[in-house]
Amino acid sequence: MGESNGTARPTIRVGLIGLGSMGRHHARVIRETDGMDLVAVADPGGDKFGVAQGLPVLPDVHALIEQGLDAAMVAVPTIYHEDVALALAAAGVHTMVEKPIAHTAAAGRRVADAFEKAGLVGAVGYVERCNPALLEMRRRIAEGELGEVYQIATSRQGPFPGRISDVGVVKDLATHDVDLTAWLAQSPYETVSAQVTHRSGREHEDMVVAVGRLANGVIVNHLVNWLSPRKERQTIVTGERGALVADTASADLTFYANGTLATQWDAVAAFRGVSEGDAIRYAINKREPLRVEQENFRDTIHGTNTPATTAVSMAEGVHTLTVVEAILESAREASAVRV
């Protein structure tokens, strides 16, 4: 690796391939992250956002590798993830690939296997896991504040993003919800059932409703589209002691406790459920999720990470993509699919 950055850890020489809508943000964050040095960039389509800042814009992953990298960030279109990642694994370069890990689960497994066999850190860029509201939610769930978790429901709706061309709403957006749900519950998916629709005249689906069950018994629901004029990013986890609601657009987290006061209203008292209790909106430290993601990648490479600061593994990325494919299969076949 490069020279020491003043700590005991050497500076990581990082290459970035893909200088589009996500790559430009990765470039900025890598440059701002202590212990990381952006030394090379590549994109066969050029540098329309001016990301290079004096670095030569290299034509492909092989030219990138020739710069002597310790690590790489892959932000090319999904269809190219496998080829680029496999080249980096063969060259001994620790790599984070933007989500999803590849264009198919089978390709994702090939990528994950290559990094595992090479003894390299292979990560997937599920940046929502680094959202302050979800990090705090995960911590509180792990500490037992909800008691047993019953249900996780997500909604991710908004206008069509101009950056998307090669996938539908399931692989682009719903993949975030699948990943964060399994992570929050610390359990893989077991079954899914879904419906999709095509309303924008494109080849790929633009709306999906999916329900499922995790291996630990938690039931889940995902409502995702990019045809809504109202932008919504919400995750609700309901358990035996109340509900946690994360608004990931604003990074706010609110706890709704089950009530403890007995009601005098007979019609309500006859219902064997919970009542409304206190509501608390937590004050949390709101750091940029992409910066947290790069720091986690850095610390995972150095082996100084904790369970809470570990980059999303490629094995997790493969599971998420397997679930995503099951959602699309369920919609095609109009039947539930076991993952």
TrEMBL record:
It holds the Pfam family GFO_IDH_MocA_C3. Residues 12-126 form the Gfo/Idh/MocA-like oxidoreductase N-terminal domain. Keywords: NAD. Residues 135-244 form the GFO/IDH/MocA-like oxidoreductase domain. InterPro entries: Gfo/Idh/MocA-like_OxRdtase_N, Gfo/Idh/MocA_Oxidoreductases, GFO_IDH_MocA-like_dom, NAD(P)-bd_dom_sf. It comes from the Bacteria. SUPFAM superfamilies: Glyceraldehyde-3-phosphate dehydrogenase-like, C-terminal domain, NAD(P)-binding Rossmann-fold domains. PANTHER family: BILIVERDIN REDUCTASE A. This is Gfo/Idh/MocA family oxidoreductase. The lineage of its organism: Bacteria, Bacillati, Actinomycetota, Actinomycetes, Micrococcales.
